[in-house]
Design a protein that fits this description.
The chain is of the alpha+beta class. It contains 5 helices and 7 strands. The chain has helices at residues 39-52, 57-60, 73-86, 109-120, 138-141, and strands at residues 2-13, 17-20, 23-26, 30-31, 91-99, 127-132, 145-154. β5, α4 and β6 (127-132) form a beta-alpha-beta unit.
Length: 155
């Protein structure tokens, strides 16, 4: 068994929606990112890669590489799962946390869990998704962006 931890943060910018856990959620802004800016999936990918001893997402999907401009993070996640599988590792479970003042993910939680479970090849009961705010502190608390944390167990 191996554990991994991942973190990602993006600032808000122009747009009318954000991607969180593979779900497009209406919002008054988008995120500034090279790919789709999905902080939960980016954190999860880093956690898996770290646990597998495979570096981080920047190593595998460089932010300056035009092949990944606007990339769907669900596709990238499936590629990361395949890399871990090549090392004989599979996700046992994961715990994901969104840190943001907005948008609220409550109405989207089941869809996020379903997406993540499908992409990891595990049952939804092994995916936990939660959210919190920064209580008005710092850049995230001021509503300037959002962050994702992920913990994963590889077996």
């Amino acid at each position: 068994m191996r554990i991994g931890f991942g973190y990602d943060v993006h600032r808000f910018g122009p747009g009318r929606s954000v991607r969180i856990g593979g779900v497009t959620i209406a919002h008054d802004r988008g995120v500034v990112a090279h790919s789709d800016g999905d902080v939960l999936l980016h954190a999860l990918m880093d956690a898996i890669l770290g646990a597998a001893g495979l570096g981080d997402i920047g190593l595998h999907f460089p932010p300056g590489d035009p092949r990944y401009a606007g990339a769907d993070s669900r596709e990238l996640l499936r590629a990361v799962v395949k890399l871990a599988g090549e090392r004989g590792l599979a996700v046992g479970n994961c715990d994901l946390t969104l840190v943001a003042e907005a948008p609220r993910i409550g109405p989207h939680r089941a869809s996020i869990v379903a997406n993540v479970a499908a992409d990891l090849g595990i049952t939804p009961d092994r995916v936990n998704v939660k959210a919190t705010t920064a209580e008005g502190l710092g850049a995230i608390g001021r509503g300037e962006g959002l962050a994702g944390h992920a913990a994963v167990l590889l077996v």
